């Protein structure tokens, strides 16, 4: 006598379930079976055979002959595309602590509400709720994640889970280090006599400040899951260097120089170094608040609607703090810095870093490289205009500088790039998948 056993929820998918993953132009048999009842969370209770009502509603069906092409056009009512999806993401379903975690991972893999309709659900979240409900769980599983979840790397974008001293280090001491080193360097240079020792002190001080900034980017809320590329690092160094040295050099080049060392914007350097602290705190506020909203939300749309204003508020707080620090640095060191240019640069760097932290690399790289390229192109055009017959190269830059001043070049370059990043960051950072484990992206 042959004994048959009922298939479990994570059994291998049958042949008819494959069209559920087909592209928009392919056959879509599951779409004809979708309906409001299939997405009703009330149907996901225990079924008469120990499974769930959703399991019995869609059935498990038998696979047709592999050589037949009929199921690719019209699958029998017994097909279960959700089971095939669960089999593909079985590890995620097993270690998920709530349906929103599954929904975020599905969203990260490109699933939309329109795609969820092929699995007989009105949206991604209702599909994730069924996948979560169909995985057998013990009472202990609901209070603590499986052991495999603890083996996964901690999400770097989330709130710090370390002890008090660790938080003190990453949120207070390290972010304050670049500003303290920069202030100490400027105070020492004001007392140092000109000469070789002064030059060596400048080089050592700049390297120390950059090393402190690098420590802040490797620890705490601004830590990226993967190191930034060479293009990002070079573009960032150029933008920072131009903010301190570029305006004076460009103005001197337009006037036929430089014949001697041009003015250095020390107030901007000090203000940007001090702004590392509010940048870390605002990043912490955003990522921590986003993860708390992720835990409370009941849908992807609700989470996105709650996260967008949080991102804009965090960016606004940073810009206000940056403006205050730049004004303070100008009051202490004499000449007032270009607030618009430094503010645009600060917004550009913070948005680029937030996107890198949450797994987006291409857009920040393009934005930073474009802003740096514009500044370099303007400077090179002014210098190249000194060649015979190339006077026309400097006309655009000279016209802009004559009307708005030399600070207009970095202001426009960084402001346009920052606005483009903001347009990209608002939808990208309001997705639940941006605030989950990097391994699920």
Automatic annotation (TrEMBL):
Residues 52-62 have a biased composition (Polar residues). Residues 63-77, 142-153 have a biased composition (Low complexity). Keywords: Membrane, Transmembrane, Transmembrane helix. The chain crosses the membrane at residues 168-187, 199-218, 230-250, 270-289, 310-332, 338-356, 368-387, 399-423. It comes from the Bacteria. Residues 1-83, 136-160 are annotated as: Disordered. This is Integral membrane protein. It comes from Streptomyces odorifer.
């Amino acid at each position: 006598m042959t004994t048959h056993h009922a298939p479990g929820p994570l059994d291998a998918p049958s042949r008819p379930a494959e069209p559920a993953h087909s592209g928009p132009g392919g056959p879509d048999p599951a779409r004809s079976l979708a309906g409001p009842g299939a997405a009703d969370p009330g149907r996901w209770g225990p079924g008469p055979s120990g499974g769930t009502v959703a399991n019995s509603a869609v059935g498990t069906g038998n696979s047709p002959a592999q050589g037949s092409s009929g199921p690719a056009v019209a699958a029998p009512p017994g097909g279960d595309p959700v089971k095939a999806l669960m089999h593909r993401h079985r590890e995620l379903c097993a270690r998920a602590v709530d349906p929103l975690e599954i929904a975020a991972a599905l969203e990260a893999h490109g699933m939309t509400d329109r795609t969820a309709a092929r699995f007989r659900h009105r949206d991604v979240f209702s599909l994730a709720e069924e996948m979560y409900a169909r995985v057998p769980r013990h009472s202990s599983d609901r209070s603590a994640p499986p052991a495999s979840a603890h083996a996964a790397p901690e999400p770097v974008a989330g709130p710090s889970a370390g002890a008090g001293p660790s938080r003190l280090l990453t949120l207070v001491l390290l972010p304050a280090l670049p500003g303290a080193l920069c202030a100490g360097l400027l105070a020492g240079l004001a007392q140092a006599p000109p000469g070789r020792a002064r030059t060596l002190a400048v080089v050592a001080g700049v390297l120390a400040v950059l090393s402190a900034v690098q420590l802040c980017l490797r620890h705490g809320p601004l830590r990226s899951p993967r190191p930034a590329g060479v293009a990002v690092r070079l573009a960032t160094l150029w933008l920072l260097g131009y903010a301190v040295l570029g305006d004076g050099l460009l103005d001197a080049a337009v006037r036929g120089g430089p014949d001697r060392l041009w003015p250095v914007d020390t107030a901007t350097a000090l203000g940007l170094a001090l702004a590392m602290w509010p940048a870390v705190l605002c990043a912490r506020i955003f990522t921590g608040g986003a993860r708390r909203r992720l835990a409370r939300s009941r849908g992807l749309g609700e989470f996105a609607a709650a996260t967008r204003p949080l991102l804009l508020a965090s960016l606004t707080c940073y810009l206000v703090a940056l403006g205050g620090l730049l004004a303070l640095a100008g009051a202490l060191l004499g000449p007032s810095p270009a607030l618009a240019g430094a503010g645009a640069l600060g917004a550009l760097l913070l948005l680029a870093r937030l996107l890198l932290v949450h797994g987006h690399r291409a857009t920040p790289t393009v934005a930073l490289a474009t802003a740096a390229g514009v500044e370099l192109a303007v400077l090179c055009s002014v210098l190249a205009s000194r060649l015979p017959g190339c006077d026309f190269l400097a006309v655009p830059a000279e016209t802009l500088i004559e009307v708005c001043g030399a600070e207009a070049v970095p202001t426009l370059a960084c402001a346009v790039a920052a606005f483009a990043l903001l347009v990209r960051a608002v939808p990208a950072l309001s997705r639940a998948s941006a605030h989950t484990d990097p391994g699920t992206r």
